[in-house]
Amino acid sequence: VGNSCVLTCTTKSNVTMVTWKISPKVGGPCTLGYRADQNKTDKTNCSDSMNWKFRPDRDPTLEIRQVGIAHEGNYTCEVVTTEGNFHEMYYLTVLVPPRLTLYCDDHGNPVCEAAAGKPAARVSWLPGSNFTPEEEGHDNGTVTVLSTLTAYSTNVTNTTCIVSHPAGNQSKSIAC
Question: CB-side exposure of 121: number of CA atoms within 13 Å?
Answer without folding.
Answer: 28
